[in-house]
Amino acid sequence: xxxxxxxDYVYLLALIPVFIGLFAWLMVWKKxxxxxxxxxxxxxxxLPDMANSKLILKFILMMITWGLLVFVLVGPQTxxxxxxxxxxxxxxxxALDVSNSMLAQDIKPSRIERAKQAISRLIDKLEGDxxxxxxxxxxxxTQLPITTDYAAAKMFxxxxxxxxxxxxxxxxxxxxxxxxxxxxxxxxxxxxxxISDGEDHEGSVLEQAELAASKGxxxxxxxxxxxxxxxxxxxxGNTLVGFKKDRDGNAIVSKLDETLLQQIATIGKGMYVxxxxxxxxxxxxxxxINAIQKSEIESKQFSDYENQFQYFLAIALILLILDLxxxxxxxxxxxNIKPFN
Length: 341
Fold this sequence. Notes:
Elements: E1 2-4, H1 15-35, H2 40-46, H3 52-74, E2 76-89, E3 91-97, H4 111-125, E4 130-136, E5 140-147, H5 150-158, H6 172-183, E6 190-196, H7 205-214, E7 217-223, E8 230-231, E9 233-236, E10 239-243, E11 253-254, H8 258-267, E12 272-274, H9 282-290, E13 295-307, H10 309-324, H11 332-335
Parallel strand pairs: 3-4, 3-6, 6-7, 7-12
Antiparallel strand pairs: 1-2, 2-13, 4-5, 8-11, 9-10
Helix pairs in contact: 3-10, 4-5, 6-7, 7-8
């Protein structure tokens, strides 16, 4: 297996076009400067040792050397040892409501931001478990296919926002169906955590929850919001410009609908927890998930990697030494070469 230890340094290659542009400008400037003194053919006779071809050759060598040194910094590595690693865990999917009502700030800083913070903390606690993320509003979409790459999972969570799904609504049933399809081939124990305020649900939600339970998926729900609710902010970019209003001009108050979420958890043989300003409820659910028997699977990993940068470094050093022996002036033996005589 091949990988780069410090892939960020690859952006240094973007300087090569800049160097080429500067070199081209330098050659044009040099030519124009010589033209101010007379005809180039005459100046060429006055400066018989001048060799632009060597200058170009030296530049090409320097660009190749630069590219090789960038690869040294990037740190190419090859996997030298493949070993089997036994991991225990479950397959977990989190379905997060991203409808506009999740912007309400009855739970600080907002329902959706508090949910994202809790999911990130949950990911930090995972060991050997696989995680996937589904987002839903009027439609449901897979944000992250099930994976053990926790760093990628946290990155995807940080990008979630209500504007990513234009269709409004709360399609919990579609999100459950998508989770069932994602976990259908899994041989591990499975769990689904739905985080929503439960408003404006669409589709056959309870039927999908029953189907999930029949396939061995334990369904948990977290109610984001307070019973008294809160208004739904409207933003222009990052600036708050007001709150959503109904036809009569009154601010719309989004309230937590616990009934549906409780029913889903009951049918799904899981647990319902209501979030508050002091906790989101994911800790209670995570403790319950940890009690689920974890399956053992075998996975292959490259445990040792060997550095391969030394080959690029050696070639770069050879080119630098070669550059020292290439002079911009014509050498004695090149002066005697007159191919057109």
